[in-house]
From TrEMBL, chains A, B:
Highest taxon, organism lineage: Bacteria
Annotated InterPro entries: EutQ, RmlC-like_jellyroll, RmlC_Cupin_sf
Cited Pfam families: EutQ
Protein name (Swiss-Prot/TrEMBL): Ethanolamine utilization protein EutQ (Cupin superfamily)
Amino acid sequence: MIRKLSMADASFERSPGQDDDVFAANLVDQRHGGPITIGYGRYGPNQGLNEKLAVHDVMLVLEGRLSVSSGDVHVTAGPGEIVYMPKGDTVTIRAHDEGALTAYVTYPHWQEPGAA
Amino acid sequence: MIRKLSMADASFERSPGQDDDVFAANLVDQRHGGPITIGYGRYGPNQGLNEKLAVHDVMLVLEGRLSVSSGDVHVTAGPGEIVYMPKGDTVTIRAHDEGALTAYVTYPHWQEPGAA
């Protein structure tokens, strides 16, 4: 069944294992039986994270600006732009002064069933 | 390797099998070796399409407004909102008067390797 997703429906939680003000809210995930996770992300000003990606991750910037680095590759994305981060890459994501709001899609799910 | 995707890089083509002014531009797909397709879509004013989904499709509205119907479910999405359309559903998507720009992610790829 089709579903409409909106940031108004998002319950943000601090990204697991992160100290910075980086929050994620899954709206579609392993609980819904499909193969992909869909959610919204929120980054405080100059906040970010560093992690090795266990899944393929598509991040679309809705507001603000984010820089992403992986090895020698550095990109900066603003509203309407997308950063594609393949599984296995180690990435550093950092918001600029104004923070950022994002939407994300991952394949497969980044949260395991039963995880908090 | 991470990649930044922007509508400025999109080469829009009319959606296969459609007569309306609905255009799609894949930026990441089967050519790149991963499991997902990422692209941008463009709908003219009041233009749309009807199809049975061969893949799971996530559509995020960047500009304008779109209504999506599937069976008894009808949703309308505007900027920053997402419509999740699972594989197997038959959907009717129609832009409102101002047309629409979207970003989409599909799993698996909606274009087969070798297709036009």
